[in-house]
Design a protein that fits this description.
5 helices; 90 residues; 72% helix; mainly alpha
Length: 90
């Protein structure tokens, strides 16, 4: 369980609520695709001792593709930490 202070917990709760809201705005087919992908990545991470694909490694591999911006910018890609945390939630 996450052991942060109350402000961090509130921020995490707000972020989760916002993320869930954004996902619900996706077309149903995109929601199903996202669910399938997250389920698949979680299954991969659960066998990380065998396949060496921890949540960190999965984030490094998939974050640039999944979380890229519509228009390329000079801003670096999202941190793999984002993917790791997202993967732990599914």
């Amino acid at each position: 369980m996450y052991r942060g202070n109350n402000a961090e917990l509130s921020n995490m709760a707000e972020r989760k609520e916002k993320l869930v809201g954004l996902i619900k705005e996706l077309p149903e087919s995109n929601q199903r695709t996202l669910h399938f992908l997250m389920t698949f990545l979680k299954a991969l991470s659960l066998r990380s001792e065998v396949n060496k694909m921890s949540t960190l490694n999965l984030g490094v591999v998939f974050a640039p593709t999944i979380l890229r911006r519509k228009v390329e910018t000079k801003v670096p890609p999202p941190s793999s930490r984002v993917c790791r945390r997202a993967g732990e939630r599914f």
